[in-house]
Structures are given as structure tokens and as C-alpha cells.
Amino acid sequence: MKRHIKGLAPCIYLMLSFFVLSGCNAQKSGNTYYLLLMGESESWNLTGYEIVITPEDFKAGFGTLKMKNANAYMTDFFHFETHVVIDSDDSVVHTGSATGEMNIVEYTTGATAGPYINKNSDFVTLEDINEIYVVVEWWDISKNESIKERIDLFNKSKKEQSFLNDL
Q: Cα(153)–Cα(40) distance, rounded to whole angstroms?
């Protein structure tokens, strides 16, 4: 019995080595970028907004919008949309809306995922992206009007000192 176990040890070692090396090859298939973004407008702070870009996928979301200087803010309409600008092409990649009486002082964005393809039918990379921003819109009951504000999250031309400059 001990003789069979000793004979199996090299086979097990080879199989484990094969799986480990196979995993290494898969990691070399492309670049993955993870962005943790935040920004603010006159009325809103957006924190924890994530964007993950892989060679085959684009994921965005899981941020929290918080209204500044408010403990409660009642409305019956709220909407946000995340924009990605590639060259001069501005595309909405993530949206969320809510209607009905609600308190919007804090709103979690949820998330979206799927392939995102540029005008050349190639998967988008971080190098392609010039700008990322969010537009928040809500109904102000006291003013009886819709209000829109823009939250800038990423601007390639304003990177100045950043690790992203090495891309």
C-alpha cells in the first residue's frame, strides 16, 4: 500500500503543476483595470463608484450618492446616469431611476456589467476613455422644477500626477 502511495506522489505533483501553470497563462491574456472613483457637485457627493475594465467586460457601479447638508430630502423623482467619453463619443453606460415618494438623501447606484465596444468594434480599454462623469437629476418639490447636476469622476487631460499616467 505504501508503495502505491509513493508512486502516486509524482503524478499528483505533475497534475497540480499543470493546473498552476494553466492559471498563469490565463492571467496573461490581457489587462484588467480597476478604478475606484469619487466626486462631488454642488448638492451631491459620490463615493465608492467602481469601474472594472477587462479585455472582454466592462462593469460599473456600487457607488453611494449622498446629498450634502441634508438629513432628509423628499421627492417623487430621482435619476442618475454615468457617461463615458471616448474621443468625442459620449455614451451612457449605467443608469438608475426611482419614482414615488422617497427620501433621496442617500442612494446606492447598483451596478451594471457587459461588454462595452468602441466605434471600431473593439472592446474598450482604459486608454480609450477620455472622461467619466455622472449626471444626477431630481425633482425639487419646493421649487416645482427638475434639477440636474454633473459630478466629474475622471478626466484624462487632468490626470496631472497619477499612477494612471503610466498607462
A: 8
Bridge partner list, 38? none
pTM for the whole structure? 0.77
Do the Cβ atoms of 47 and 55 come closer than 8 Å? no
Cα 66 to Cα 158: distance, rounded to the nearest angstrom: 25
Element of type H or E holding 15: helix 2-27
Per-residue pLDDT of the chain (167 residues; tens, 9 = 90+): 445 445 544 444 434 333 333 332 223 235 899 999 999 999 999 999 999 999 889 999 999 999 999 999 999 999 999 999 998 899 999 999 999 999 999 999 999 998 888 888 888 999 999 999 999 999 999 999 999 999 999 999 876 555 555 65
Spatial separation of the C-alpha atoms in residues 49 and 63, rounded to whole Å: 4
> Which of 91, 90, 96, 103 has the alpha carbon at shortest distance from 49?
96
Rounded CA-CA distance 98/67 in Å is 16
